[in-house]
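Q: Okay, next protein. This is Thioredoxin from Natrialba swarupiae. I've checked the sequence twice, so it should be correct. Can you predict the 3D structure?
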Amino acid sequence: MTTETHTGSTDDPLPVEGADHLDAIVDEHDVVLVDFFATWCGPCKMLEPVLENLAGETDAVVAKVDVDDHQQLAGAYGVRGVPTLVLFADGEQVEQHTGALPADQLRDLIEGYTE
């Protein structure tokens, strides 16, 4: 359990409601990890508890984009497979990875931009 308070409930992954919403999340927070996922995707389901833990344990905000609901947004980021993870730091896209990454690798990736 964290003792920090964040604006908006950022200890849980935030569902993204569209391109403007994603832009607002990226603008409001220093480090944002965006998970482009699909509900039918097995690796996405395996990654979900990892991302929930990272949202609570790190200073990064985790945002989730359902590619079936937001196909144009996924296309704008060149998402060709799910899960695709896009990391933003200080409003800029700094990393993009396709496939489920292990928790320790994701934590190291985030901490590289939050320290």
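A: Here is a summary of the prediction. Helices lie at 19-28, 42-57, 71-76, 103-114. The first strand starts at residue 14 and ends at 15.
Q: Noted. On to the next one.
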